[in-house]
Every structure is written in C-alpha cells, then in structure tokens.
Design a protein that fits this description.
single chain, 194 residues, alpha+beta, Aminopeptidase, 8 strands, 17% helix
Length: 194
C-alpha cells in the first residue's frame, strides 16, 4: 500500500483501503476526540519496554500542548487507530521537551517559526500498514502550507530511518522523558522551503 500526500490540500481528509478495509486520514478540529487520542497513547505505549508503568497506568496521556496543537487521526469504522499531533512555535524554547536537548546545535539552521512533530501513536494491531508515514506526510504538508521554516522531531530509534527518508537530519540524542525513563529519544530536524 502506498499513498502519497504530496498535495498540501490533502492534509484535511484522505480515504484509502488496506486489504478491503476502508480507512480515513483526517485533520481534527479542536477539541474534537482528544480523550480518545489520549487513551490510544496509553494503549499503544503501556506495554513497551522502558516506559514508566506508573505513568501509563492512567486512562489517557494528555498535556497542555494538546490544547494548542494540530491533530490528525486515522479512523477505521469510526474508531481512532492512529493519531499524531504537531504544534507551531516562534522560538525553540517553547517546543515540547526543548529543555532535554541543547538548542544551540540549531544555530546553524536559522530561526523559526518551528513545527514540532510529536505524540505519534498507532494501535498495536494496526502497525505495519504505513500509518506513521501517512501521518508524517500530512503534518509536513500542513507545516509547509503554513510557512514553517523548520520541523523538529523527537523520535524513538525505530522511527529514525523513516524520518530520514522524508528529509529529516539526525542531530543527536535527548535526555529521556520522564514518561519513558529507560527509552532513548532522538532529535531530528527538517528544513522547509529550500
């Protein structure tokens, strides 16, 4: 299955099929379905190695950034099976988890505005269908259409290659998130408009 979302107009809604099942990729309007996305984050991460079992014993993983961010979901039979968010920032210091990485490394890349890709999650039974790439492409297209200069990503190791394939550069490791104290997170950047 390959679905390319190169047209910036496709960041709103795209229908596609996998093995005779229909899926819908769509951008949500705030604050639509935030609780469901938060519950999916816990469901998808709670059994992963290196996460805080105490933190993931909660019903949902939501934070203040969710109220300001843009959100995309993939639906199957009206149920959210994958989700991701992106937030916009004028300066690096306001990016989620900016304190966990030395922002001075970005000096050679110019200034914002920045977009931050985060909270990508796919329900375990739907992994391996390319949903992460679809959500990445939709967010990149949206950032490009809105004049963003650079996109920051903070992926786990398994996502580095996929982001490199989309033009992101690997810049190093960040200190662990308290929600995932034994899971290494990395720092990547993609310059737009070059």
């Amino acid at each position: 299955m390959e679905i390319l979302l190169k047209n910036p107009l496709h960041f709103m809604e795209t229908r596609f099929e996998i093995r005779n099942s229909e899926f819908l990729l769509m951008k949500l309007d705030y604050p639509e379905r935030l609780d469901e996305m938060g519950a999916l984050r816990v469901l998808a991460w709670k059994d992963e190695q290196g996460v805080s079992q105490d933190f993931f014993s909660h019903k949902a993983w939501l934070d203040d950034e969710d109220l300001l961010a843009h959100h995309w979901v993939i639906l199957h039979n009206k149920e959210i099976v994958a989700a991701a968010r992106m937030s916009f920032h004028q300066d690096y210091s306001s990016i989620p988890h900016a304190d966990l990485f030395d922002g001075s490394i970005l000096e050679g890349y110019g200034n914002g505005p920045y977009a931050s890709l985060n909270r990508l999650v796919v329900a375990p039974e739907y992994r391996g269908n390319g949903f992460s790439t679809l959500l990445d492409e939709a967010r990149i297209n949206f950032a490009t259409a809105h004049g963003i200069k650079m996109i920051i990503a903070q992926p786990v190791a398994s996502r580095i290659k996929a982001l490199e394939d989309l033009g992101f550069l690997y810049l190093g490791k960040i200190r662990p998130l308290y929600q995932m104290p034994e899971r290494q997170i990395y720092f990547m950047i993609k310059e737009l408009g070059k």
